[in-house]
Amino acid sequence: MIAQSGRQKLGDAPLACGETLTLFYTKLHSHYANLAGEWVNFYDKADVIGYPLKELNADYRLKVTSDCPVHVGGPLTFWNPLSHVVAYFGDTDILGPIAEGLVGVWQSINTPPG
Asked: Residue 88 CB: number of other CB atoms within 10 A?
């Protein structure tokens, strides 16, 4: 949707919709030293480009918090790269843990010490 100024509203922009995120860097640790990050890898065993990462090598074992097998998509998408466009981002087995993680971060940084 185009706003009157001719620019897209932030909520409708491809980046805000998660359509163009390619790289992600954060300096959250410098603001919240006690907050630990995590790398959760969701993958479907039938997905041709999704696979467990922790078993690749020692570096991945240290960096990836967990590999989470899920079953996403239907007969036309679960086995191919289309699953990354239509299935992963709408699957409750993925959205639930992401939402819980975000809630935990919010609670951690907004709860006064004591």
From this structure: 20
Asked if 114 and 37 count as a contact pair (C-beta separation under 8 A), the reply is: no
Looking at the structure of the chain, the number of domains it has is 1
Q: Give me the domain span that covers residue 89.
A: 37-110
With respect to residue 12, please indicate whether it lies within any of the assigned structural domains. Answer: no
Q: According to the 3-state scheme, what is the secondary structure of the chain?
A: CECCCCCECHHHCCCCCCCCCCCCCCCHHHHCCCCCCCCEEEECCCCCCCCCCCCCCHHHHHHCCEEEECCCCCCCCCCCCCHHHHCHHHCHHHHHHHHHHHHHHHHHHHCCCC
Task: Compute the distance between CA of residue 61 and CA of residue 67 in angstroms, rounded to an integer.
Answer: 10
Output the pTM of the full model.
0.70
Mean pLDDT over all residues of the chain? Answer: 81
